[in-house]
């Protein structure tokens, strides 16, 4: 008699929209955490939204038919369920593009990592929202309101979800759209507030969001085979314009993958206190409102699954690479960092300043290579996956041009900042030895 296969978070489920979460799970948590006897009636409407925006969750718009009228119950809310179904699609896309690039042992390691990380990512996000709720700064932080949540634990390995505020009339400006530099100011203010408030986290709060391991998360994708795959995917965006640039960066080999520097950057820059890092602050996690005059304003910042304590420039690199054109990023990054620092000093008030503006800029320069390598697959298969959901076929070539321009400037700067930063760890160790 063969043993029954154990169901894991990696598998599709029999619950809501092929997840493991069933309606009764949601009903139970709503009753407990929202202090109500109301249930989601039979005329409640459920609609999948956001497919193609994230790869570790299923996002559902719920329009409740509440069985009991209660003023504090929302007329609509978003149900975010941890799910790996989109990861399957991404891995298949990677394998289809380069069948030999993802070796079986590396694919197995990738899936094992996703199984472990999926639960931890969700729990950290839930814990982070509980922490920031105490700060009472949701307006400036642009955080959605959280109504209820269920975490993973020893007895619950497959059902993790969040119920959060629904914001109407918002859009995501994906990688194949470009924001203007000044439009990022509210995001910079939000990030500055996050960093400033994080300086008085308790040990218990820090422990509740502990566990992010960048090397473990990215190591299986940034080995020799993985990097070859990333460069191949980048060339595929526009072989004529990107092949030569990609070849130049690839020629550096694995020297460009410097986990020691990326994971311990504060030590090498001389910053003595870590700050909270969003960890996934890119275009898909910023919600925008389009005004009547065609201008955009930032509405919300979402998805704190990769939250961790680290270097203050990590989010800035990712934000600029994903939202700005390559030309604007190169021309304006220092001015934007200056603006961020002004917001940071304002949020700190009279508290001690943990790093200088020059330390912040040096951090940006030295973290850029790691942040850029992480972003490269976003320009390739992830953008292509998102485009596959789009019905806007008329503008596909325009989108491809935007991605090409971003990739051109990214590859150019990868070379520049790798040459700038490659000896930092070696020189630091030599200096320690000589003392």
Automatic annotation (TrEMBL):
Pfam family, one: DUF1679
Species whose genome carries this gene: Caenorhabditis remanei (Caenorhabditis vulgaris)
Domain CHK kinase-like: 161-350
Protein name: CHK kinase-like domain-containing protein
InterPro entries: CHK_kinase-like (IPR015897), Dhs-27 (IPR012877), Kinase-like_dom_sf (IPR011009), Oxido-Kinase-like_Enzymes (IPR052961)
Domain of life per record: Eukaryota
